[in-house]
Amino acid sequence: MRLAPSTKEKIDFFLRHPLTLSLTGMLLGSLLIPWIVGRSSKQAAVADTRLKQALQVMATSNGVDATINKIETISLHSLRLLRKCSGAGGLAGG
Questions:
Q1: For the segment 35-93, what is each residue's pLDDT rounded down to a tens digit?
Q2: Does any domain span residue 75?
Q3: What range defines the domain where residue 9 resides?
Q4: Which residues of 57-86 are buried (b: 16+ CB within 10 A; e: fewer)?
Q5: CB atoms within 10 A of CB 4
Q6: pTM tops 0.70
Q7: Is residue 3 a contact partner of residue 11, using CB atoms and an 8 Å limit?
């Protein structure tokens, strides 16, 4: 079905009219801008949550490392004391 040139021209004029363009832009803007802002806010919240979790993991890891270092230090001191005691006792007893 083919439109008559006069009807085609009317449709073309309507679509190019400044008021039609303004209304179309306003509708697109009112729909797209909130969607973009909402999406951006959601991504920022997810990134913030991931950052907080990463910092918490690092803090926990540092705490575990400190505990392991304390255990190693205590073990080394205990071994040295045992060697000193067994070495001194062995020499005195022998």
A1: 999 999 999 999 999 999 999 999 999 999 999 999 989 888 888 888 888 875 554 44
A2: yes
A3: 1-30
A4: eeeeeeeeeeeeeeeeeeeeeeeeeeeeee
A5: 8
A6: no
A7: yes
